[in-house]
Amino acid sequence: MLQNIGATYAVSIVPGAAQKSSLIHYYPPSVAIPVGTTIAWFNNDPGQPHTVTSGLPSASNSGAIFNSGIMPATANSFFQYSFNREGNFPYYCEIHPWRVAKVSVSSAIKRGNNFEMSSGVGQTLNLTKDFRTLLDFRPLTIPLDRSTPLTYNITIFKNNTDKVFSKTFTTAREKLSLELIVGRDINETRAYGPDFSSTGAYHVEAPFLKGNARYTIRAEITAIKSKPPQNKITDEFTLRTVT
């Protein structure tokens, strides 16, 4: 069943989600993604069916945009949907309607010489309402397919000079998807992923993202099929955090 997934990003219906006492139904409960992102929801709540239904429980148009139908409580039960227009998309479970989650979609794109960067929040991460954003880095100067592994180095500088993060990521997709998460409960930066084999999103949970600051994000392709490119492929983009 999993081989049919074309998604970038995974959301989990967590164990215990059917109980009203559960603090979370969908995790993460709120995500911000660029236009064109496909999300897959997995029912990881043992013995409990669920739905992923667009809108609010009391709305007359609930389910008009997407509706999973009953997701059985079986291994690898999932539903996926591609968000191809910007906006805010609340959703809920028709069986357990006391939990509502949200997907925010942005069409903002910043174009450089070698990459274009899309962000689920545009160029500003507003920490009063958003704690995570998915970034897409799409190369512009090399041919792309879904079989050639590309190795990226992502380096982040805070306030232009302070290097706070640097790591390599490999994907066979036509873009690198990397989610930045404000690390509220950790003291060290943690990188993990991808969500699906070598094709899903990676995640960086980072305490350095707190507060008002300007970040420079340097994207570079360091290898194509494990070989260095003939010419340097790099760009820099900016992202601000505000409170």
Give a quick set of tags describing it.
Immunoglobulin-like, six-stranded mixed β-sheet, mainly beta, globular, 47% strand
Write a structural description.
This protein has 243 residues and is mainly β. It is 0% helix and 47% strand. The protein has strands spanning 9-13, 26-27, 30-34, 37-43, 53-54, 78-83, 87-92, 100-106, 109-111, 115-119, 124-126, 132-139, 150-158, 162-171, 176-182, 190-192, 202-206, 213-224, 233-242. A six-stranded mixed β-sheet has the order 9-10-12-15-17-16, with no helix packed on it. The protein has a five-stranded mixed β-sheet with strand order 11-19-18-13-14, with no helix packed on it. It has a four-stranded mixed β-sheet with strand order 2-1-4-6, with no helix packed on it. It is globular. The mean pLDDT is 93.
Q: Helix-strand pattern, N to C?
A: EEEEEEEEEEEEEEEEEEE
Number of strands: 19
Rounded to the nearest angstrom, the distance between the terminal CA atoms is 42 Å
Q: Considering DSSP H and I runs of 4 or more, what fraction of the residues is helical?
A: under 10%
| Poorly predicted parts | none
Rough outline? globular
- Using the coordinates shown, work out and report the CATH topology of the largest domain: Immunoglobulin-like
Question: How many separate domains make up the residues?
Answer: 2
On the 0 to 100 scale, the average pLDDT is 93
Q: Do you know the CATH architecture of the largest domain?
A: Sandwich
